[in-house]
Write a structure and sequence with these properties.
The chain has no helices and ten strands. The two termini are 23 Å apart. It has one domain. By secondary structure, it is mostly beta strands. Strand 6 and strand 7 form a beta hairpin.
Length: 115
């Protein structure tokens, strides 16, 4: 079941839908979402229980996502900030980076899939 952040009680059609890329050896999971003030709106602060999501519904606005990226045996926990629009569908993807010194570091991107 997707998590949601909808304190205004908007209809689901007015929320942004965020979905993480999936796969066997390469996938993304959302570990937490923070609003513009840095307050966690999805997720838990517990070191013991660390939920992860692949689908979320959020009110339109600007959010920072904490993402778990797994690419084979490599993994990373990058963050990405994005402005979400009402009714739009977004996909969280992870991409391996090679900066000449480190291979396997990852960056997360959130791309708009549909209006």
């Amino acid at each position: 079941m997707p998590a949601s952040y909808n304190p205004s009680g908007l209809p689901q059609a007015e929320l942004a839908f965020v979905e993480a890329e999936g796969g066997y050896s390469k996938f993304a999971q959302i570990m937490g979402v923070f609003d513009e003030t840095g307050r966690r709106v999805v997720g838990t602060d517990s070191w013991v229980k660390q939920d992860r999501w692949t689908k979320l519904y959020l009110e339109p606005g600007r959010y920072q996502f904490a993402v778990h990226c797994q690419m084979g045996t490599l993994y990373a926990a990058p963050s990405v900030t994005v402005e979400l629009s009402a009714g739009a569908h977004y996909k969280v993807i992870c991409r391996a980076m090679n900066n000449g010194a480190i291979y396997g570091a990852a960056e997360a991107q959130i791309k708009k899939v549909s209006p």
